[in-house]
Amino acid sequence: MESIFSQRVWPSEIILVDDASNDGTLEELRKLSEKYSGHLIIVQMKCNLGAASARNAGWAIAKQPYIAFLDADDSWHPEKLCIQYEYMLRNPDVLLSGHQCILKRENSTMPVLPADWNATLISSNSLLFRNSFSTPTVMLKRDILFRFQEGKRYAEDVFLWQQIALAGFKVARIEAPLAYVHKPLFGAGGLSSQLLDMEKGELRNFVALYDAGLIEAPLFGLAVIFSIAKYIRRLLRIKINSLRRLNIKLKSFLSMYRRR
Questions:
Q1: What tens digit of pLDDT does each residue of 113-136 get?
Q2: Which of 46, 132, 250, 253 is found 20 to 30 A from 53 (Cα to Cα)?
Q3: Which of 145, 160, 182 marks a domain boundary?
């Protein structure tokens, strides 16, 4: 919320969706609503359905022509909305845009934006092999017919981007770091730590796209093989990092033991 209200240009409406939390989140949202009176709309889900359904619930009541997404553990650069909104207005044929997103450590300074950033059109097939848009980077037109798949809890975001691109609509990435995650994308807490479930979600995406006739058999097979290879690589990286941390702790313990 601080990063939203630090925007050089404020959004016309801010919709906060509480996905039936039981940790006091709703009370905190109500405090924010009192603090920023008249600027916030709170949507309370009756039961927990996951990020896809929560985003759709907010989308359903949005009135502005463009929508941007921001999860609770991410943040935006103060220039994000200004830069991206102006880009979308200048390029009405682009249905969805995203931008670079980087890991921001605690107390680290805000990165300096490039003076003359550019935008890259993203091919539909490339989205099968690499998610070019993390959710807090995305801005899209509100009145498109596509939505997040209800109840889908893993790889639901990239599935929407894939559907839009494979249906023939233009998608683009602004080459500037305008959004930040505050924990590693893989191997940390939250949904991203559940790598096997995420992998299953991605593979189900490919099956759904193939069944819908949006990709052909050779591309489907290639995407599946590449996805499994990425999954194995991520597991190995997490294992190696764990062994490195264990090695550091062991060296520290031995050093203390020798001093005694």
A1: 888 899 999 999 999 999 999 999
A2: 132
A3: 182
